[in-house]
Amino acid sequence: xxxNREARRGFWRENSLTLTFGLAFLVVLACQAVTGHAEFxxxxxxxxxxxxxxxxxxxxxAFAVDVSExxxxxxxxxxxxxxxxxxxVQRGSPESKKVxxxxxxxxxxxxxxxxxxxxxxxxxxxxxxxxxxxxxxxxIVMGGLFVLSWTAQSIAGTAAYNGQQLRQLEDPVxxxxxxxTPDFWNRTLQNWQSELLAVAAMVVLSIYLRQRGSPESKxxxxxxxxxxxxx
Length: 231
Hints:
Blueprint: H1 2-14, H2 16-46, H3 54-58, H4 61-87, H5 107-110, H6 129-134, H7 137-167, H8 175-178, H9 182-208
C-alpha cells in the first residue's frame, strides 16, 4: 500500500508541469466558455433574437472560432521558434543556443547515426529516412497543428461570419471569400503579433533578468553575455 502511494506521489511530482498546465488549460477553457456564452447571448438580445443554452454555444461556430484562433497562433509561435532557433541566435540569451553552434549541428553533437547511445530513441540511429523524419519531427508536428487549427479557424470563422451576415439580413459568403475578409485577417493578425512580441520579449529580457531555479533563466550569477546556458 505504501509503495502504491509513493508511486502515485512520484507520478504527480515527475509530471507536475504537464499536469498543472493541462488542468489550468481546462479551467481557463471552461471560464472562456461561460463568459463567451454570456457575451454571445447579450448580442443575440441586442439583435432581437432568442438566447441559446451553454450546450448549444459549445457546439456553435462562435465558440469554435474563438478557441481555434488562439490555438493556431500558439502553434505558429512554437513552429517559428523551433525552426528559427536552428539558425538564429541571440548573444546572452538562454533562449538561444551558443553563437558558434548556428545550424543543424553534427551527428556527433546530436547523437545521431553511429553516435546514437543505447538510450537514444530508436529512429535516431537508423541512418535512413526515419532518422531524417525524426530529426525534424517536433517542428513538423507543430507546423501541422498550426495548419490544422488555422484551417479550423477559417471554417468556423466562415460559419460565424455568415451567421452574423444573416442576422443583419446580408448575403453569406463562401469559405474562399471569407479568407480575404478583414474579419478573418483581423482575428488572425491580432494573435500573431502578440505571440511574436512575447517571444521577442522573452529572448531579450532573459539576457539581463533572472529567475532562480527556472530552466528558462540563466543562473543568477551568470554574466549577461553568457549564451545558451540554463539555470
